[in-house]
Queue: 2 jobs
Job 1
Amino acid sequence: MTVVLTAPAGASGTAPSGFPPEIAAALSSGRLDDAERMAASVLARVADPALFNLLGVVRIARGAPREARRPLIHAEVLAPQAAPPALNLALILLAQGADAPARRWARRAVLLDPGLPDAQATAASAERANGNLDHAERAVRRAIALAPSVSEFLANAGNLWMDRERLDEARRFFRRALAASPGSGNPRFQLACIDLCEGKLARGWAEYEARFVPAALTKRRPFPQPEWQGQALASGALLVWGEQGLGDEIVFATLLGDVLKRAPAAAIECDPRLTAILARSFPGLSAYPRQTPPHPALLSSSISHQIALGSLPRLLRPDVASFAGRQAALRPDPRRLGASRAWLASLGDGLKVGIAWRSVRRNAASQRIHTRLDDWEPILRTPGVVFVNLQYDDCRDELREAAERFGVRVHQHPDLDLFDDLEGALAYSSLLDLAISTGTTACAFPAAAGIETWILTTAVDYLAMGQERYLWYARTRCFVRQQGGDWLPTTRTVADTLAARAAGASK
């Protein structure tokens, strides 16, 4: 969403553009430092709401949103009937994850100027962030009616339909967004995700490269070597570099064995917590922590080619058949197994089942695709099962409430930090009889270690690729929530399946 520079009503001493000519010139030529300096100089003499708004916008553009809030509030106080300061405050708060106050400021901006397309679009984003999809849909449709060719508004509508798990409607809006702005990466990337959700792997992985197009998902790392195209490398080493979150790094790392068949000398730059795990799991692979600037070894002339980790599926997994022969990908450190094995044994008889029910993000967007522990009541009441926690953030209150409500204890490993101690987390996960999780990082370790893993997911999980199992791993099964429904029918199905599994294990 773009910030709004329009001068608030009542601004004094401004040129027709809304700002003094020299400041307008600095803005038009991209000289943000000069614009900020001149605005601050004028504001030292005159409390001009337009320039306070400008100062806030410039600070947002310079990556200092917290410093932008004070001048924007000054602008709002001086010109309370002006929508731009309220709108820009909403944008800052949205970016910072302060969803509820962002909605209040966005609604204020709409109230002040309902004909301002950006106000309607920002209100849509704020309502969506707060889980109010009906309000969000009405607002984004108003934004599109006011500005029908703005790619960002159309893409926002596509995102909203993705939230509703209506892929056909989402596709139509993303295509309109791309037609309005052919160079935009975001709608291309989202269309790629829809293709992957529907199992159209070749096209989906090809268009997945749009995540690097500006304003999309991520940035390329500063490696100068030519991009690898999948060819066998008889000489020279290959560098693979991670560029997404930890869970994605683990998923795509399952392809490193195939990489080493074509490039026996290979290195990976990854999350520092994964270096030892990947080096041990893939003999011949050198692992380096991601840092800025990169490790000097990764800029060496001995490395002839490079590729992003998330670009490997385009070369190595173009169709479902190419996933055949999956095996356990990650090997735990044998020295870390003893303590977890002893602790699990101390819990008594029964299947040892690890569970994780949500993302660490607790916003409305996350809640739409993840569960609450309340949804797990049918599962937790399954006899013959000992449940242990895989959730890697502080969930003590949830576990205590679940024990009080359901009379079932989910055991928490007393000496293991599941977030930072990934070696311990992998060893612990590799000893389970079964893991059940939503599609978070928590399910990646047991699945990659070859443990049977059941994944609670939705129709918009592109890593599931429309299959009944996560093809990345050897032993998985997907339980897909009904479109637009709640989780209880799904968790009841899981509970029935788990009861049969536990009964079979007891014989």
Job 2
Amino acid sequence: MKILIDCDVLLDVMAGREKFLADSARVLDACETGKIHGAIAWHTLANAYYLADDGKQALKFFDDLLSFVEVVGGDTESARTAIHSGFVDFEDALQSVCAAKFGADFIVTRNVKDYRLSRIKAIVPADFIEKI
């Protein structure tokens, strides 16, 4: 099974967001153990770095993460697809396009409602963990 991990799930673990940490960490753990094939969108790294309290710690987190999660990049055609996708939130449109490019079965996010127009089904971490 292949998933694209949305930035909010990554930030839950990176920032230790207590309320969401357990389920989001289990998603990353499933990737690390090879139970599922995970990816993040290229721009997720920039978004998470920008929001990080400690840039050096964020880079260390990314370095560890990239040992078991792929990065899906974009290009001109992907950007145009996102622009014309009809999404209210452009960043979510980019995530959706990257998920499709990766061939993901799911986008794991806490923002399911924002992915109604996505070709790839969005699912919250807790529900995804139940599936696997």
